[in-house]
Every structure is written in structure tokens, then in C-alpha cells.
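cache lookup: miss for this entity combination. No prior model stored, computing from scratch. Input as submitted by user K.M.:
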Amino acid sequence: MSLLVVGSVAFDAVETPFGKRDRMLGGSATHFSLSASFFAEVRIVGVVGSDFGAENIALLQRHGVDTTDLECIADGKTFFWRGRYDYDLNTAHTLETQLNVFADFKPKLSAESRRARLVFLGNIQPELQREVRAQVSDARFVALDTMNLWIETARPALRRAIEEVDAVIINDAEARQLAEEPNLIRAARRILSWGPRAAVIKRGEYGAALFTRESYFAIPAYPLESVFDPTGAGDTFAGGFMGYLASCEKIDEAAMRRAMIFGSVMASFNVEEFGTERVQRLTHAEINERFREFKRFTHFEEIPFERIARLAMPDESDRSPVAAKEPTALN
Amino acid sequence: MSLLVVGSVAFDAVETPFGKRDRMLGGSATHFSLSASFFAEVRIVGVVGSDFGAENIALLQRHGVDTTDLECIADGKTFFWRGRYDYDLNTAHTLETQLNVFADFKPKLSAESRRARLVFLGNIQPELQREVRAQVSDARFVALDTMNLWIETARPALRRAIEEVDAVIINDAEARQLAEEPNLIRAARRILSWGPRAAVIKRGEYGAALFTRESYFAIPAYPLESVFDPTGAGDTFAGGFMGYLASCEKIDEAAMRRAMIFGSVMASFNVEEFGTERVQRLTHAEINERFREFKRFTHFEEIPFERIARLAMPDESDRSPVAAKEPTALN
């Protein structure tokens, strides 16, 4: 099924304890679409400036990403973000943000894009997310991402946007802040009460969780001995999640669970190198192998019935052989 | 198989955002043995003062815990700890510590205790752990816990203690500090290189991981909508882990994986109420039900072979239908 993503396309300058890049391809829609391209045909809606070289368009197209709706502002500059990660790679420190052409971004969907069956509304203003949502009336599954800025400054619009989608895909801090609830389980439940059928909560190195009204599913992260650059990991996760769903005939619980694994797999590759570098040269064989590894390191055998029977003694209040004895004196 | 635990027996005063207790039964050996008692016969080695009422001995014995080696110092007072948890229940703030009789604790093992097949060396001085270890020469599986204090003040002794055990059961911050390695995977690997065959890393609300030389296993935590008091959760986990292993004929990878689940299950009950209150009235049926829930919320189906075949296209360098096209001009 066709998959559409709306979000930022950017250049990032990133410094981590392991190295730096002064200017590399980034942005939520970029990370998402490259990741999703391994599973489905992806169309990207975004805006760039005239500094966005043809080699970047070529890169997206080489991955089968349709760039028809990637608008170019001739006299504008592409969104630029500069950030630093210290040894705690969980926290990005923003050093510089130049919104440039992204400041006036108005997503423009071609007729083909409006027929998309799956849509990911990347982290942009909630009112823009709603405008896009209104245009994709054929969509079977729409998900959105957001961030603390919109939770703090545009809560009513964000709430309405959430009411209109099938899933939210956010990190755990955002879920707690959005739901105004420190407990993650209750936070997810509150978000589901607003309308979506699924809440996907990303927990970085601790894994991810999928909440629906009827069920709960949680996975650890893929074990990595070195994380090089976490930039774009969340969008790469979303790309694997939505991309896999777009490849499925039915978007049910089983498909969403597998999509969680593929999202985690894609994110695990993303953080191994700077920006999109690792994902750019990823192969399907590598993806499938890491999926199988997930099965291996999360699998456990259910306890045999005999064991359960042996443990479940008839009278729990009198199960101990010494229960009837008087307390003995201490030595 | 018989299971021995050496550790603290204490009274705790705890305050959380949800309530307080001025004096409740606590200590590592207490939490461990009550938890393990649901799976195996447990012997406890510890020390208390004359203020340790017979009702507490009776409680342990009612759970089948053998208290023969629980020494009572007639003119002494039991170890006392007072702590507070704020809304971040992951961090305990110690307000008061009275070591009392625990300051001079010298574990004394009866002949019966020295024949134990499984041993848990709770968080005490590493030299004491080594003395106990030397006395249980029949043991098939010995695990130890430790804490930042010993990592900082007794590293050489702790290192030797670790060389002499089969498993370490510690939390993630301790693992990183112990191995002097911020990445958890590498930290666990370094610890294993010192001798143990297993490293069990507890991650609180994020779950737990089991590392051996050949394998890796990770699980999320049981999803709880409210955590009341985390005191003793780590020892309760260790009790479920070691207790279940003591009930197994063979301590292999499959058994250790199930033991991880039982450890998590026991810890999830422990934090639902103050101190040992919830575990005291737990039933085997409740434990088994939560074990089955773990299977339900971590299970995913492996991708059908056809799907893998479809995704794994023959030539990864030319997999996209538009790959051969020239980059299109931007609109």
C-alpha cells in the first residue's frame, strides 16, 4: 500500500563523543522515508531551499522515494540544525536552529499523494498535520509524531490532531508530558482515550512499547555495543514501523507487533553511524537477520503445565510444611 | 535443590508520595527469602537484635524459610534504614542508617547450610561474601549482589568475589560503574570476562537483561499502573530468579530465561505495596498468571518465509524501480 510522509528535510551538523559532521542530510521526513523505502513505496512531502543539491534528490530516488511533492524554494535555504550529544547519547543539545524555508512550510499534496493509504505526519505544527490529514480521506492508517514544543504551545490543536489519527508514535517523555501523567501505562491509556487505536512509545536504549485498547506489547532495544549518533533514530523507527505496515495486507495486532520489531531494527542501524549513512547502504538481508535476532533474544519457553500444576498447591494458606509449627525461639 | 541466602535482615521506615510506614520488615535477605520461598526451600543466614519480634520469625517460617542460621544478638538492635522516594520512584533518598548488629555481622553457616546447592550472596562486604562462598563447596550455582559502596571502597575484594561466583545480579548503574564502561552491553561482557557464566542486569521499570558468553536475553518490565514502594524490588527479583532455578533439574539457558521472567514477576508484585506486604499474601496462581501475561505481551510471530523471500531482493544495489532514472529536477 502507498505510504506518504510529511515532515522536515534538513541539513544537520552533529557532534558526538565519537566524531562530527558539519553538514549531512537530515530531517524527520528524510530519515522516515529512507527507512520506510525498504518495505514500501514512499512519497515525501516537504520543502527545501536551492542549496539542496541534486545528489540528495538522487539519493532519495535511488531508494524508490517519490520526490514529486518535495517543494524547492528557489531563493530559500534548507532547514539547518546543529546539535551536540555528550556521553549520555539520550539527550541532544541544540546549538543552532535555522528554520529557513521550513518556517513557512505549507504542505502541498499532489493528487497521487492524496490517495495514499498510509500516512505519517512527522513532527510539524499540529494545525498543518490536521490540514494534511483532511486531504488524505482514503487513508486507512494515519500516524503522527509531535514534540514538547507543540505540547507546550499548541495543546488544543494537537489534541484535535490526535483525535483524527489512528496512531501516535512518540517517545516516553513526550507521552508523559502529553498525557500529564508520570506513569507511562496510564499516560498511554489516556492518549488512547482521545481516539487513536494505537500508541507507540519509543524508549531509546530501553526499547519500545505498543498500546492498544485491548493489548500491550513491549520489546527491549537491539543490543548495541556502540551508539555513534542517535540523530533521526525516532523517525527511522517510525519509517520501519509504517513501512512494514504498508507492506501488510491487514493492519492488525500481529502486523503491528512485527512492525515494532522492524522499527527497532531500522533504528538500531541508524544509530550505528552518522545521520543516514548506515541506512543508505543497508540491505534487506541485514534487516531480516536482525529481525530474527530479535526473536532469539526475546524468546522464552512457557513453563510446562506440570510445573504450573506443581507450583499451584491446593491450599495457599497452608502450603508450607512448617506452617503449622509454632515460631521457634531464636538461637 | 536447597537454596541459601546471606544478607541483611532489617526494619525499614519508608516514605513515598503514596504513604508511609514507620517500621516494617525489610532487608535484602528478607525480601529474597520470602520471594524465593514460592519456588524452593530457603535457608536464611543473617543477624537481628532482640527487638526482632517472634512474629517476624513466624512470618518467615510460615513461608517455609528455615531460620536456624538467623542469629540473634541479645543486647543488640536490628539494622534500621529510613528512606524516602519522591515521584521518581527509581531513586531512594537515604535519611538514616543504623547498622546496629549488622555492623559486626559474621555469617555463621550450620552444617546443613554449608550443603546448599544454590547460594545467593546478598549485598554485604565482598570479603564476607568470599568467606561464605568458601564454605559452600557443594554449591552448583552461586550468585552475588553488590552496591556502589563496595565498588568504590572494596573493588579488589569485590573483583575476587566475582571471580568465584557463577552469576552477578546487579542493576544497570552498578554494572556500568563496576565495569567502568558506560555501554551496558560492553559492561556486561567485561564482567563475564572475570569469570561468572551469567550477568543479570536489573533495569527497574525498563525490565531486565541476561548476559552469558554465548547469548543475550532481554525483557521489558511488567506494566504497572502504580508503583507504591520499590524498596526490596531488586532482592525480590533475585529471589524469584534463584528460587525458580532451585526448582529446576538443570540450570541451563532455557531455565535462566524463565527465571528472569519469574524474577520480574515477583518484583512486580513487591512494588505494588509497602515492603513485603504484597508478597506475604501472594499465591502461586497469581505468580503463574503473571508469568503467562509476560508471554502474551512479549510474543510476536516470526515473519513468514515468503515475506522474507519477497523482501530479500536479489540485487540490493538495484532494487528500486526508479533507481536507473536520472535525478529529476525539483519542481
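stored under new cache key. Residues 184 and 299 of chain A are 24 Å apart (CA to CA).
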